[in-house]
Amino acid sequence: MSKINAAITGVQGYVPDYILTNKELETMVDTNDEWITTRTGIRERHILKGEEKGTSILGIEAVRGLLEKTNTDPAEIELVICATVTPDMLFPDTANIIANALDIKNAYCFDLGAACSGFLYALTTGAQFISSGMHKKVIVVGADKMSSIVDYTDRTTCILFGDGAGAVLLEPSDEFGHIDAVLKSDGSGEPYLHQKAGGSRHPATVETINAGDHFIYQNGRPVFKAAVSGMSDVVKQVMKRNNLQNDDIKWLVPHQANHRIIETVARMADFPMERVMVNIHKYGNTTAATIPLCLWDYETQLKKGDNLVLTAFGGGFTWGATYLKWAYDPS
Ligand code: UT7
Q: How far apart are CA 161 and CA 149, in angstroms?
């Protein structure tokens, strides 16, 4: 019996309307457009404005669009996995909130963390339920409202992040889809990239709030170094394991954290930038949403049978590379 692959049969993204430009950031912190552009490649990012609007708003819009464009009855969805580090609340999971808003009544739903690698981890997790034969329709959504945990007085982080969501539908295929993944974790990365308070070790108190411990903390340089070596390593590993040469890969799809990281990984893995998906200039780092937002932006250039390698690195540390065969032509 041939192996059942989990094919991506649709992708949809969503970013909120408000655009925070480098120019506007210049009025908020001691920074400038030139520094941000040359050091990160980011020109603008989208921000979800409004009271009581959480990450689910972003996920709902992405999944709503996905159901519509793939002509899928919400009742057929069996599982929804939401990758996020900015859930609406600690529980219930944001995946449940998204499903409830869209009449996805026959699915079980859960969230998955893994920070910037969240979408890759969730994609591989969702794919297993298809490959095992357990489910026929699974939705994986990466969604983050990073503006909810960014300190807009800290110039080292506030210029980097944006809000957004991207969702894919997974269905069985004997020819295309998720073929392999190399996923890694190293908990010794915790000091370099974390959100200290709000969990069980440091629940919210007046002190944690005054200390700014509910915001993202990042020591950029060591994370940069680990990201470059981690991503290029796993890209090479997944290619070697599947006997792939560079020319066999149509697109490298990297997590969008810094244009310089993307270029360095591409160079180390020997990919010309013409075959590397890049949209960091318009969204910044949207954490779990960067990879599906890339697939969404480049969807019209993707053809049935194209080989793609997706790669990410993030808090944890977590990182990985996934090899998949694209399952459909542009409509
Ligand atoms: O997605 C999760 C994983 N995260 C990442 O992959 C991010 C990895 N790290 C990075 O992308 C980069 O390290 C950053 C973009 C965060 C920082 O770039 P960098 O080239 O590593 O700069 P740096 O932190 O070494 O800072 C260089 C200088 C410093 O000034 P001095 O000490 O040389 O006088 C900073 O204070 O740039 C200064 N600086 C800024 N200047 C203007 C830091 N942030 C800013 C800013 N505007 N926004």
A: 10
Our answer on whether the CB atom of 254 is closer than 6 Å to any ligand 1 atom is no
Active site residues: 116, 255, 285
- Domain ranges in the chain? 5-176, 180-325
CATH, range 180-325? 3.40.47.10
The residues, ordered by sequence, that sit 6+ positions from 168 with a Cβ below 8 Å of its Cβ are: 8, 10, 11, 66, 123, 139, 140, 141, 292, 295
Q: What is the pLDDT of residues 222-248, one digit of tens each?
A: 999 999 999 999 999 999 999 999 999
**182-to-17, 309, 314, 323 alpha-carbon distances in Å:** 35, 11, 15, 9
Q: Which fold has domain 5-176?
A: Peroxisomal Thiolase; Chain A, domain 1 (3.40.47)
- What is the DSSP code string of 237-285? HHHHHTT--GGG-SEEEE--S-HHHHHHHHHHTT--GGGB---HHHH-B
The full 3-state SS of 208-228, as one line of letters, equals HHHCCCCCEEECHHHHHHHHH
Nearest to 95 by CA among 69, 62, 127: 62
Mutate to test the pocket of ligand 1, among 224, 294, 311 (most ligand atoms within 8 A of CB): 224
pTM for the whole thing?
A: 0.97
